[in-house]
């Protein structure tokens, strides 16, 4: 937790309404019928914004194109693509996709008869990036075992949270010798902890980590979870679960992690509202990340000389990632000074 709060990339995650749903809702109801309008404005996507600075000598991995498991689009606004440093990248990593759903929009189906997959679960971490890669690899490996065993993916968010907690606790030296695992009882897939499955490794060596992981993570779930289904809509609402390095977890509708999270969470508590559109959430996040940049001296405020901070200002980039069941849209926005309201 300490490594993430001191050195981690500032990341904000919020639930919001897709713009398409907002327009449909506003056309179906009168302006005076606010009660019905509120019931129909259900959050159906997740927006993640991160404030990134260039890393010299680093080139971000290219995003897959063509027939992909989900739609991942990378684009920039206002012709800023030439200004985006090659090290700037999307931080959200896909854990699993699913193709066993029937409510696929025919318009999203590609013309080359490639089946459309929907996004199931993703994760974004801040802190030590090598630890984030280790956690991602362990989770993807366990998801594969779960799929091959049951021919399905976990439908409960709590089940995925437990997988992450098992990996984190194992890295803290938790003793699994007294645990009676499901693999020994019912032929299940067992625990996601690396040391729990060390007998399966060909090397027969210990796979237990030597230290706790220095990161914080958001688990982003778009699965059909009974706990997240609302009464006004049969579709499930996305969930954001913050999981710290010690295994503690809490579910939020809007939350920040990384450098400046205290100030960012305070601003989120004041500004976030139910039924906000995607554009409203993106504007709010840009405001908050600007305050984080000013707080840590990365960006000069309005009351200071702008010339001294102009070079740093051009280097800062906000990476905005929108998660829906159709995939991930990645957008790069330059950090702009937002004048405070007088």
Overall pLDDT metric: 75
How much helix is in the residues?
A: 25-40%
Class derived from helix and strand content: alpha+beta
Calculate Rg over CA atoms: 21 Å
The N- to C-terminal Cα distance equals 37 Å
Question: Biggest sheet: strands side by side, in what order?
Answer: 3-11-10-2-1-9
Topology, number of strands: 11
Strand content: 15-25%
Major sheet attributes: 6 strands, mixed
Brief summary:
With 342 residues, the protein is an alpha+beta fold. It has nine helices and eleven strands.
What's the structural blueprint in terms of helices and strands?
Layout lengths: L1 H6 L3 E6 L2 H10 L5 H7 L4 E8 L18 E6 L16 E6 L19 E10 L1 H22 L6 H15 L10 H4 L29 E7 L17 E5 L5 E4 L1 E4 L3 H11 L6 H18 L10 H10 L1 E8 L2 E8 L8
Parallel strand pairs: 3-11
Antiparallel strand pairs: 1-2, 1-9, 2-10, 4-5, 5-6, 6-7, 7-8, 10-11
Written overview of the protein:
With 342 residues, the chain is of the alpha+beta class. Helices cover 30% and strands 21% of the residues. It is built from nine helices and eleven strands. The strands form two sheets. The protein has a six-stranded mixed sheet. 36% of the residues are buried. The model is unreliable at 21-39, 65-70, 106-112, 182-187, 226-234 and 306-312 (pLDDT under 50).
What brief labels describe this structure?
single chain; 342 residues; alpha+beta; globular
